[in-house]
Give the backbone structure.
Amino acid sequence: MKNLIQIIRSVLPLLMIVGFAMVNYSAVAQSKVKVENVKFFMEDDKLVITYDLNKAKAKEAYEVTVEIATTPGTKIRAFALTGDVGPNVYGGKYKRIVWNLAEDNVYIDDEIVVEVTANPMDQKAAVEAIKPARSYTGGQKSVGGAMLRSVALPGWGNSYAADGGAYWLIGVAAYGCLGAGLYYNNAAYNSYEDYKEATTAGERDQLFQDASDQKDMQNVLLIAAGAIWVGDIIWSGLQAASVNKKTAAQSKVMVGSYYDPIAQAPMITLRLRIK
């Protein structure tokens, strides 16, 4: 009996350490998924919520829930939700949830907070809820930041302002024109150097014409590169300003209440003010 007690005393700490390590590993493994880039905006009488479900495990389903509240903390219950919400939502970018305000008899006119939470379907009860991602205004953009990005790489500022898109093609066009312009500059220089060393009149005329044509092509390409660069800097600034204006208009929400005689119940109302 004493030997059995000694064995239990020696094995028990090891079992506790192993058990703690397994629980800790499970919690870490399940907490890698992140809800990021939550934004919202109005489309007619619908509130559209977009988000990314990053670092999700392959083929692992999540239950996504949405909480909407006023900035003071009054919760607004949304029932008419469709899209990437509820059970069986998989990881990925550009997820979209649509709340039909008209169907819920809701209108908006004050600041609101939108929270999106994702929990694994298989071990939801055993895992602490993942910290929700929160969006207050749908995402303000720095006009100066967008323009500086386009100075470094045309199209980068547009991608920043629009949260994605194939704007990198603008950078390809700008740097392509710049590289081709430098190529023709070098070709024109070489042709002119060969012209100065040519021995026959026919050869000299041809080399001089080549140098002149290459110089003209160089000028066209460098002007095109400059036009793309400057145009995109201005465009990215205007694009960021437009996003900020739209975001500010879409974040004005006022909450009220009234008694619905048909439903025989008090109802919550929201109204959106678009300036």
Q: What stands out?
A: The first helix runs from residue 2 to 30. The mean pLDDT is 76. DSSP finds five helices and eleven strands in the chain. The helical segments are 2-30, 143-152, 156-162, 168-197, 201-250.
